Every structure is written in structure tokens, then in C-alpha cells.
Amino acid sequence: MKKLLYLSVVALIYILFGIFYYWNPILLVQQDPIIEIGTQFDPYENVLNIVYGDIKDLKIKGKVDTNTPGVYSLTYQYKDRKKTIKVTVTDSKAPILEVKNVKTDLQEHITPELFVKNIKDSSKVTLSFENVPELKKKGKQKLNILAKDIYGNSTTKKVILERLEDKTPPEIKNKKAIQVLQGSMEDFASKIRVKDDLDPNPQLELDTRQVDTFSPGIYSIHVKATDRSNNIVDQDVKVEVKENPEYNKKIVYLTFDDGPSENTIKVLDILKEYDVKATFFVTGHAPSYNDFIKEAFEQGHSIGLHTYSHDYKNIYSSTNAYFNDLDQINSMVESITGQKSDIIRFPGGSSNSISAKYSPGIMSELVKMVNERGYQYFDWNVSSSDAAGNDISKEQIIQSSCTDKFDQINLLFHDSATKNSTVEALPDIIKFYKDRGYKFYPLTKKSYVVHHQTTN
Ligand SMILES: [Zn+2]
């Protein structure tokens, strides 16, 4: 009797559960989940089971944008049974803030950003000082940096600001004489190493009037460096103009930027016909013509680096971006010729001002950095003007290219599919210089340099 009663109760429970699950077949892990911004949320993973059913027949309506806080509605539908839940995306995490103490002079403009080493949050963070700081005060003071995201989560970190009266002038670190090759056009400011204890960027003024780059010898340039607290160092830096065996020899360095292209082979044929050597500053634009780079190299022409992408917006966005691109083009050149290149031409030349749009001051930094990394960069002192448009006539190019103003000429051409008149003008230009006793050399790191004045 007892056993029968027990079995009936069990059967009844089964029946009740059966009815319940018939009406509510969708079992979820979380009814109304709350998830953190930026994390993953898969609505299917929130399904525990479909009782007497298959998850394949489950439909889900609604979307959760896990990158935007808010309340989202999701409807699970299995046959004619529906279940709607609310998914809340919140940003409840405070920004992760790493700070550093700052020691500076009394001139620097103090902002909360100066104290930040690193900051992380899923949404936008604004920085402020929690207490009202006396930013002009001399000596040490404790400040609280407050980082607050747009959902009101905040982190505070203590920092120390130390303001000193800067009485130490910058130091000029050039120990050895700056060496230049006789006849070179040099941007001396790029060769001055200046350091200040508190101002990362002292102003430089140079007086180079004593230097005669055409005559070998030791000269001085007068350098004046001023930090923002107006401490001044006045110092002479030696310049050694080294004898250039090629000086007075009348040399033309024919240089072709932007290739390879379908025209490279025509240029190579002309150079071969007149038995002259040139330099190609190549890009990664047209890999289908990379065989021409190999051919140029094998015929004794120099291969230089013009950047892989030639994309101003990218290469001049930061010094890192520039060098990443330069490594890329140099790897390409090495894979073609078997040897890395150490000569560079900047897109737009070192005097380009377009780069200022992407990173103010970048050219002044790059001209120093490429030197430090073992490269030499070359600008030009004669332009063929073939980049002034696509319809520059052969006659115009010849006229712009032919001059006897200089004994040593770095002549700028462009190698691209649209520059047919450059190819047509080339034989006459070569004849002009041959008739006047010029030799044609490929550029090497040691060649005579033309450096424009940087403007950014
Ligand atoms: Zn170019």
C-alpha cells in the first residue's frame, strides 16, 4: 500500500514536471544576465537545455552590442514557445591608471596627462586633478590624478610634482668634429646633439658663416641653445671638411624615384647604351616589376630606399611608422639583390612640409635618426621637374635637367608608367653632361650629399 502511494506521488511529480516543461521548454543559464562592456556574450551559450527539443530549432531575436552599455532585449523562440530576457551591458570597471612623478622647470605647462604612464579602460576616459593644485609653486607637492570614464567609474592615483627653477643651460654633446665631404650641402642643425636636464627640446641657433664646405679644413660653427627657462649655452662645434677625391671632377648622379615600373627597363636600356650608372630609389608599389630592380643591381646601378608604401599619411605619422616601412622596403630589396641598402631618399625630400600635417617636427627627427641607424639620405640639387605633372614635355624636362651651375649634380627623375617623356628626354640629358666632361656615378653612402634644409 505504502509502495503504491509512493509510486503515485513519483508519477504525479513526473506528470507535473512534464506539463511544466511542455509549456516552458527553454531553460537558460541566466535569466537576465549582466555583462561587462567589451566582453563576449553568445546568446546560445546562455541556453542550458531545450527540454524534449533540439537547440538547432531555437531562434533568437534581438542583438546585444557588448561595446555599448545599455539594456538589450533578447527573445528565444522554440516552436511557438518564447522567452524574453534583458541583457544589461555595463561598464562597472574603473580605469586602470599607471602614473609617474614629474620633475620639471617652472615653465612647462602642467597637465594631468604629463603624469600618465599608461591608461586602460573600455570607454573614453578624461583626466583631471582631484585637488586644486598650485601648478606654479616651486618645490614638491602631492597631487591626485583622477581618471574617470564616461560611465562614472573612476580611479585616483597620488603623484608628486616637483618644480625647480631651471638654472642649468642645455649641453651640447658633440665631442668630435662634424665631418662633411668637400662640396657637400649639409644641414648642420641635424648634426648637433643637444641635451637639457628639464627641457626635452631646447631651441637651436647656428652660425655657419665660417664654414667653407668647398675647401678641406677644420672650421667652427657657433651654436646657441636655449632652454625654455631661458638658460643659454654658447659653444663652438668643430666641422671637418674632408677632401673629396671626386670633388671638381664633375659628376652627375642620375636618380630615379618611385620605381620599379614598366618604364624601368627602357631607362636601363638607355643607361646601358650610353654606358652610364645611376641610382634607383625604389618602392614596394609594383612587385610585378621587381625583376627590373634585380637587373638594375646586376648592371651596377645603385638601389636605394624610397619607402615601401610611399604613403605620406602612414610613413610620416610617426618615426616608428617610418622605420617599420623602411625595414619592409629594405627586406624587399635584400630579397631581390641579396644585399641591404643604406641609402635613402625621403618621399618629398627631407625638406617636405606635407609631413607636418601628420606629425609636426618629424623630418627634423628623421634626418638625425636615419644617420644614427647607419643610413645616408640624399636630396637633389637639380630637378628634372618631371613630377610637376603627367604631361611635362620632353623639351621642358631637358631644359630643367641641363645646367652647369654645379660640378656635382644630384639629378631627380621619376620612374613610373606615366613618365614617358622622362625616358624620351634621358639620352639628350646624358649627352649634354657627357659633352661637358661630367662622369656618371651610382650613389653610395660615401657619395657627395645634397641635404635640403628641413622645414618640419
Ligand atoms: Zn616619390
Automatic annotation (TrEMBL):
GO terms for molecular function: hydrolase activity, acting on carbon-nitrogen (but not peptide) bonds. GO terms for biological process: carbohydrate metabolic process. It comes from the Bacteria. Keywords: Membrane, Transmembrane, Transmembrane helix. The chain crosses the membrane at residues 5-23. Pfam families: Bact_surface_Ig-like, Polysacc_deac_1. InterPro entries: Cry22Aa_Ig-like (IPR032179), Glyco_hydro/deAcase_b/a-brl (IPR011330), Ig-like_fold (IPR013783), NODB_dom (IPR002509), Polysacc_deacetylase_ArnD (IPR050248). Residues 250-441 form the NodB homology domain. This is NodB homology domain-containing protein. It comes from Faecalitalea cylindroides.
